[in-house]
User: Fold Lipolytic protein G-D-S-L family from Paraburkholderia graminis.
Amino acid sequence: MKRRACAAAAAMLAPLTALITLTAFTAATTAHAQAAQHQIVIDAYGDSTTLGISCSEGRCAPQAQNAVAYLQDKLQMHFGERVHVVNYGVGGTMATQLRDGTGNRRAGPTAGLPWRERLAASPAQIVLINYGINEVMQDQTPEQFYAAQSALVQTARALGKEPVLETSNPMPDNRLNARLASMVAVTRRVAAEQHVPLVDQFAYISSLPDWKTLMSDGAHPKPGLYRLKAEQDAEVVEPLVRRLLDGTL
Assistant:
């Protein structure tokens, strides 16, 4: 009788055990999916000041201490390792090259693709865009820059990304800086027209006393200024990350 009772109890418990196992598996799967959804990827596109070049004793090279790295550190202090900022800065490039896929093809497997295809292949939810200096150096017109930046923003929005525009840091040469100011005005215009978050590095850095001493050469900040740039980036990007994690963006 005891054996029969045990067998009957086991038979009755089997469906319950299966249900508990299935429920646990479903919960784990759901939790994993939710965790994956709450991974925030930020792509940072731009020129050598995004890449993080600094110069010392006549040598210029990318530095580990750059604005993108500092930004990731700051975001991870608040949100943990759920947030990753990927540096796609390429020295000497312009917004038109990013749009057309004609920049440095060594900067990642999708670097030679036009912007729409490249961005469609990216898991990033937020896209930082920082250009202007090489437009001055390559004698582009503000109109060309306006067309390129407008296209970058519109395409990002169409693909469900949140674009963030960033003005260039100023240049110590007064003549070049005056020309750069016209490119900065374009970035501000696109941000206003497209209702895009803006990090106005040009205005912020220009307001700093003796800011030229924070530059390593005629275009590239020293690591200390890269850190200050990252703080400005974080003021704009942190609320976007928080809204994504809360599911309200």
